[in-house]
Amino acid sequence: MSLQWEPQWVDEVVEYAGMRLRVKRDKVTGLYACPVCGLGDNATYLLTAKDLFYHIYAHAKKAERYRARVQYEEESREEE
Ligand SMILES: [Zn+2]
After folding, report:
1. 73 CA to middle of ligand 1, Å?
2. DSSP summary character for residue 61
3. In angstroms, what CA-CA distances link 18 with 8, 38, 56, 77?
4. pLDDT at position 79, please?
5. How far is the CA of 2 from the centre of ligand 1 (A)?
6. pTM surpassing 0.85?
7. Distance 78 CA to ligand 1 centre (A)
8. Secondary-structure breakdown of the chain: helix, strand, coil percentages, each rounded to the nearest 5
9. Rounded CA gap, 52 and 46, in Å?
10. CA of 71 to the centre of ligand 1 (A)
11. Ligand 1 center–CA 57 separation, angstroms
């Protein structure tokens, strides 16, 4: 059994809980590729639309934390 496969990516619009997202989906396995992680070494493959949207949501939460930290750093710099 081979542990690698030759993915055939096709663009697909995925809908979940009223949200729509254009992502790459592998025709061979049916896996979705996270558009934020990309298709390189850091690629993340998700099995269902639900998994995909929870994964994207996690990216958004991470970005939110980062934004809050940057804002905080800017505020503390002004006090100096
Ligand atoms: Zn991702």
Report:
1. 26
2. H
3. 27, 23, 14, 41
4. 61
5. 25
6. no
7. 34
8. 40, 25, 35
9. 6
10. 24
11. 9
Find, among 33, 24, 37, the residue nearest to 52 by Cα.
Answer: 33
Cβ atoms of 52 and 21 within 8 Å: the answer is yes
**Residue 72 C-alpha to ligand 1 middle, in angstroms?**
26
Q: pLDDT tens, 27-75? A: 999 999 999 999 988 999 999 999 999 999 999 888 877 777 777 777 7
Query: Cα–Cα distance between 11 and 67 in angstroms, integer?
Result: 30
Q: How far is CA 44 from CA 59, 64, 68, 73, in A?
A: 12, 20, 26, 31
